[in-house]
Amino acid sequence: MSGDVTITGFGIRTAFGTGADALRRGVFAGIPAFRPTTRFDTGPYRTPMAAAAPDGPDAVEDWALRHALARCGAEALAMAGLGPGTEAAVLLGVAGDHTSVTRYWRSRPEEAAAVSTRGPGTDAGRTAERAGERAGGVVPNGVAGEGVARNADVVSGRAAGEGAGRKADVVPNGVAGDGVARKADMVPGEDAGRTGGVVPNGVAGEGVARNADVVLNGAGGEDTGRNAGVVLTGGPGAEPGGVAARFADAVPARLAELLAGHLGLTGPRLTFTNACVASAAAIIHACRLISSGRIDVAVCAGGYLVEEETFGKFDSGRALSRDGMVRPFSADRSGLLLGDGVAVVVLESAEHARRRGARPLASVLGWGAATDAHHIAQPHPEGAGLAQATRQALRLAGDPDGAALGYVNAHGTGTRYNDGAETRGLRAALAERAGSIPVSSTKSTTGHLLEAAGIVEFVITMLALTDGVLPPTAGFTRPDPECDLDYVPNRPRRADPRRALTINAAFGGANTALVLERP
């Protein structure tokens, strides 16, 4: 049993507002936050509903993800009694803020259509190549043939066919044919970037990134970024206020650097992009670093704000609820809805917190992570990976049977595939205890927060322990025979749990579990 990781501060924002009281008024009261979103035109989609804050496009721009993370981070540090200059690791779960990318392509409908909607073929590839050059080398969701992205610097979707990415050194999510990224993908150091594609945190001499496609934090000497397609910050190659600057927040690692810089924190920075377990994975990694004695303080964060690109993808996958509600574990559940979520928590070693007189809010006793790799999008039908992660966390907490658990905050997406599999996974991990432990899904009120789900639900679980109130599963109508646990339907429940479990799952079969205990 580790028992040496404590929570000393947090900051949080959801569609209900900022802070714990907003959660108490919404999540803990069982009031869903779903409403038609006005951030973008929802006319082309099957539903306009999301758990998004009632702010128009201008306010959303002001509450860009970087600003939301910084504000929540400042609140977390203030609660913990820490400030600028603190030596703390920053671990962030995020996929980036793609709002500016979407707006860019919306302003160029002909090029966007050529890049993202035309099928394989030479003509589409040539159009994509021209679009990539005009756009400073960013070809999102490119699906095209020969010649795609030969001179494009970043291919952010799929590029198929011969020659895709011959001069594109960064091809995230690239599914391409012959010749993808023939140049080196990462060549840091002096003269890095002459043939290398990525120069992270580039601080180097003459010639750095002359032909590099992406310089993440370029601050170099002569000729730095002369031919770099995208110079995200600083350096002679930067274009203040230009296309590259507007795209900067779409790079997840960039947001971690911005957060650490804004808060004045020193220490390592790590970014996790593994979908709906990203911020939970950040917390788990921080716990490992603290419990092993490698660091004393970690600032963990996660964020997602509803935006059109992801909304459109989930809509096209028919994953969004048809009736404007999320009904986890209910027989008539029909899908998920997205929601705003940003949270930051401060984790410390218990000894470090004691030395400086910090008040522990709760402790993290156990953690587990497992990947069953059953399917790219569907969970293992028996919840195998989730059960394995849960067992790991319980063993580390010194409670392999879950005898001390008083509450489980479930992943509970409200989809047909997830909820039955999750129920079976909990039964496998908790055996005869499963039926007697209250389980609820707070996505029924907050919506699915994607990369931020783990950390927001971590905070909600902590509040359930400290407040003695279990948040309900809202929207529950009638039982489903394959979902046969106590789901705390529709109304909050007074309780006195000392320990609680929070679990999350993600595409690719990734699963996480965390065990918390109140002081």
UniProtKB/TrEMBL annotation:
One MF annotation (Gene Ontology) recorded for this entry: 3-oxoacyl-[acyl-carrier-protein] synthase activity
Question: Which residue intervals make up region (Disordered)?
Answer: 111-142
**Highest taxon above the source species:** Bacteria
Q: Name one GO biological process term.
A: fatty acid biosynthetic process
Matches recorded under PROSITE patterns: KS3_2 (PS52004)
Q: Tell me the ranges covered by the Ketosynthase family 3 (KS3) domain, including all copies.
A: 1-518
- What keywords are assigned to this protein? Transferase
Checking SMART domains in the record gives: PKS_KS
The entry's family comment says: Belongs to the thiolase-like superfamily. Beta-ketoacyl-ACP synthases family.
Give the protein name, as stated in the record: 3-oxoacyl-(Acyl-carrier-protein) synthase
